[in-house]
Write a structure and sequence with these properties.
The protein has helices spanning about 30-40, 60-75, 90-100, 130-140, 150-160, 175-185, 210-225, 240-245, 270-285, 290-300; strands at about 5, 5-10, 45-50, 50, 60, 80, 105-110, 115, 145, 165-170, 195-200, 225-235, 250-255, 260-265, 265, 290. It is of the alpha/beta class. InterPro entries: Aldolase_TIM, BKACE.
């Protein structure tokens, strides 16, 4: 039976650097333009990071986020989902600065501390556009992305309880699902929980069909009917695992944050190109894409934490 499938688009992120693709949006105008195009192509949720417009370095500057959100909000009604992950080199206060100021309807929330290895990417390039890029990637050999239980509780309290945001709970391994279940039981997050299964990041669970089945079975056991899930798979695994997630009854996330390509050996020219591709797949499977309002209703957005 046809059902609405929520497409999330992660527009720029903090993983890829300017050298890797000329199509990666870096300025507030470019990020907003690509976000709106992605929404027009079918994305109901836009997952947003900011970058220094001069260098492309990931930024936590609330003024940049404010400009991005303002430009998008004036042109479409997609759900705007602000990152609280930022990058592993930011402090918690830096990562939360924009969301604390702007009070969005939705925020991302990584459900644990982890090794987050970007350093293998540094070996693929030699002619860098900016001096900061190789060092930024290599630093992930020694830097841990931190989200302690105390950090998670701070985010839930500041943005969920007081701010009324719902969360995209990013789970990079099965242990993160235990943390989701713990906070659901404690009442710090409320059903329906929106879990983003994340595959293919070095330090997290690998991008294999068996692992998707394992994550879903674990979430089913721990969360029962209290959750909805989406699939995010890095790099070349983006479309295959995303499609599998839809077949299993879930939703899907695409975007240049997670994958720079549209096909083998070919860079995606925009976020909208990836959204259009997954939309075609969703519709060929007999489903339809969710509107922003349907996404809000499905995930309880606007009803608090």
């Amino acid at each position: 039976m046809s059902r609405p499938v929520i497409i999330t688009c992660a527009v720029t992120g903090s993983i890829h650097t300017p050298t890797m693709s000329p199509y990666l949006p870096l300025t507030p105008q470019a990020i907003a333009d690509q976000a709106v195009e992605a929404a027009q192509a079918g994305a109901a949720i836009l997952h947003l990071h900011a970058r220094d417009p001069a260098t492309g370095l990931p930024s936590s500057d609330p003024a940049l986020f404010e400009e991005i959100v303002g430009r998008i909000g004036a042109r479409c009604d997609a759900v705007l989902n602000l990152s609280t992950g930022g990058s592993s080199r930011m402090t918690l206060d830096e990562r939360l600065a924009a969301a604390r100021r702007l009070r969005p309807q939705m925020c991302s929330l990584n459900m644990g501390s982890m090794n987050f290895g970007l350093f293998p990417l540094a070996g693929r390039y030699t002619d860098w556009k900016h001096d900061w890029e190789p060092g930024f990637l290599e630093a992930t050999r020694s830097v841990i992305f931190r989200n302690s239980f105390e950090d998670i509780e701070t985010i839930l309290g500041d943005l969920g309880g007081a701010g009324g945001a719902r969360f995209e709970l990013e789970c990079y391994d099965v242990g993160h699902l235990q943390t989701v279940a713990f906070y659901l039981e404690k009442g710090l997050i409320k059903a329906p929980v929106f879990v983003q299964f994340v595959f293919g990041v070095l330090g997290g669970i690998d991008a294999a069909p068996e692992q998707l089945m394992h994550m879903k079975a674990t979430a089913d056991r721990l969360l029962g009917t209290n959750y909805r899930f989406s699939v995010l798979a890095a790099g070349r695994h983006q479309m295959p695992l995303g499609t599998m997630g839809v077949i299993l009854g879930g939703h899907v996330r695409v975007g240049l944050e997670d994958n720079l390509s549209i096909a083998r050996g070919r860079l995606a020219t925009s976020n909208a190109e990836q959204v259009a591709k997954i939309r075609r797949i969703v519709e060929e499977l007999g489903h339809r894409i969710a509107t922003p309002d349907e996404a809000r209703a499905e995930l309880g957005i606007g009803t608090g934490g």
